[in-house]
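help with this.
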Amino acid sequence: MWLFASATKPFLTWMVAVLFSIMNSKQRKAFEAVFTKPIPKNLLWSDLESLFKGFGYMVIEGDGSKVSFEKNAFSISFHRPHPRKEAKPYQIDAARAFFEETGDKP
């Protein structure tokens, strides 16, 4: 198990670098904002959603404001913030933890 984990880490780092290079500037800024501490309060939900799309996640619309992002065996669900357009700090924190878990991190 340890051998597999150590062998895949460089590959995952390389994959994130490749994905980062093909993201648009809006997605790159959102990515940097997600990993900024303290958590930004002005990150637009649409930018966070665009970031998930940039990493290749499929967007699945649920009932009401629920939205899920899925890729391979990983998925995460949120409720879109309303009436405001900014992502809530706990959503940004959850996205950061999710990206770290899936290996989509700097």
